[in-house]
Design brief:
The protein is of the alpha/beta class and 488 residues long. 33% of the residues lie in helices and 18% in strands. α6 packs across α8.
Length: 488
């Protein structure tokens, strides 16, 4: 069933009615928020879309942005430069709160298409927006720094995400949303981008709340690191100094092939991520963390065994890791006595390695975000504890997504096989209701206290449901002292 015409700054759109069980929602898919990032705009900041004449059909997703065809993330072919978003809204009414969701995928893969917002729109009264933005070398390679060339904007993919937020603030009222009630949220890479937006003067004033899941500022790269990555990309692409023009004319497939080559040349590294450029982002991690953050409610979420995915199922993003690798990551940032205290706290066992990596790269980063958040703005913390038996992963990185998004993420839903389906469904509804309540009110529920240094309360989600605990929180923070240790 089609909908009436919606007017946006770029032109008119026609959406459709979609079913969510016994309920219905309105949907507009594949909506451009910026001009296609191709040709001369391949490495440019996102530009306003030129608009269109007549009525644009918004019934189908836009192609995913250019990325590897990766079974661990998406099986849909991609294309270059399609900067588009998707909108689901309640069946009627105006002034609904808005959730702008940023997908994960290590800034190398992923799509807003993987997160279907119809259930939140139909059952919870929330407008959901999901976004596609440039990834991999087209989104995050520091070619401008490498070649001293202003045509290559830094952090183009992150700039795309900010442009999407600005488009939503300017246009969402036409879809039934309230531009003064936009919560930005994301998981993994999307969580990193959300944490960056909290401190971005172009984004923070547009945010009424933030949800940061399994992403922290320690996943942002340094300038020096970004130059090394850009040099490796240039080598893989066969682009020599003085020949940066070639980067505008290479076929899109060359950049996918270069990403694959880099992941072979630079294992155990993040080869695509935002970097501290001194223009779009501050030049130092300490400056970024110390900068003013939007004084809005903040929800920080993690899973109990985040790091098990990277220990037990090595892939292109994080090949198999070990205790020595994590120790080397810590040494430059902790005093020798503190390094020894940390290592003594985590047993030299497979489970100890998972616990160490989970705290080092996720929980301690969230500690730093909580400690630097404006005191007047509430912070809530969540931990997802239900785990799968598959590969011994437990409550691994991304497991919470299978419960938060009512239409499981395609092939990943296989992690939910087994018994207790009814109890798992009840847990999913509880988790979804808490996230929707946070978007609506800035408070995830009456039984969920805010997290403070005096009372570090964490809401834990497992069968049979939510419990609140402070166990281990003070000990972890005393051990690590909120150190922000960059990912290698």
């Amino acid at each position: 069933m089609t909908l009436g015409i919606v007017e946006t700054a770029s032109g008119r759109l026609q959406g459709q009615v979609v079913q969510a069980g016994l309920h219905a929602a309105r949907a507009w898919l594949g909506v451009p928020y910026a001009a296609p990032a191709r040709g001369a705009l391949r490495f440019a900041p996102p530009a306003p879309h030129p608009g269109w004449r007549g009525v644009r059909n918004a019934h189908a997703y836009a192609p995913d942005v250019l990325q590897p065809l990766d079974p661990s993330v998406t099986l849909v072919p991609s294309a270059e430069g399609s900067l588009a978003l998707n909108i689901w809204a309640p069946p009627e009414g105006q002034g609904h709160p808005v959730l702008l969701w940023l997908h994960g995928g290590a800034f190398r893969a992923g799509s807003g298409r993987l997160y279907d917002g119809r259930e939140y729109a139909a059952r919870c009264g929330v407008v959901v927006v999901t976004v596609n933005s440039r990834l991999g070398p087209l989104g995050y390679a520091n070619f401008g720094g490498l070649f001293a060339d202003e045509r290559f904007t830094p952090n183009a993919g992150y700039q795309d995400q900010v442009a999407a937020l600005r488009w939503v603030a300017a246009n969402i009222a036409a879809f039934g949303g309230d531009p003064a009630r936009i919560t930005v949220g994301g998981q993994s890479a999307g969580g990193v981008a959300t944490a960056l937006m909290l401190r971005d003067p172009h984004a923070a004033p547009l945010m009424a709340g933030a949800i940061v899941q399994s992403g922290t500022l320690n996943q942002v790269g340094s300038w020096e690191n970004s130059l090394g990555i850009a040099q490796a990309y240039a080598q893989a692409l066969g682009v020599l100094p003085g020949h940066a023009d070639r980067l505008f004319t290479l076929p899109p497939s060359a950049f996918v092939q270069a990403l694959h080559r880099l992941e072979q040349m630079r294992p155990r590294r993040l080869n695509s991520r935002p970097f501290l450029d001194g223009r779009v982002l501050p030049g130092r991690l300490e400056t970024l963390l110390a900068g003013p953050a939007a004084p809005v409610p903040l929800l920080l979420g993690a899973t109990r065994e985040e790091y098990s995915l990277f220990v037990k199922v090595p892939d292109r993003i994080f090949p198999r890791t070990d205790r020595a690798l994590l120790t080397r990551a810590m040494v430059p940032y902790l005093a020798p006595g503190q390094v020894q205290a940390v290592l003594a706290h985590y047993p030299d066992t497979p489970d100890g390695l998972v616990a160490l990596g989970t705290d080092l790269f996720f929980q301690v980063g969230h500690d730093a975000l909580q400690g630097a958040h404006p005191p007047a703005a509430p912070v809530f913390r969540a931990r997802f504890d239900w785990g799968t038996r598959l590969f011994g992963l437990g409550a691994t990185h991304g497991m919470d997504l299978l419960f938060l998004w009512p239409r499981p993420l395609g092939h990943a839903s296989g992690l939910l096989r087994g018994g207790q389906a009814g109890r798992r469904s009840a847990l999913a509804r509880q988790l979804q209701a808490a996230w929707a309540a946070f978007v609506q009110t800035g408070q995830p529920g009456p039984d969920w206290p805010r997290y403070t240094a005096q009372h570090p309360a964490v809401a834990c989600f497992d069968l049979p449901g939510l419990t609140v605990t402070t166990a281990g929180e003070r000990e972890r923070r005393a051990l690590w002292r909120d150190a922000l240790i960059p990912m290698p």
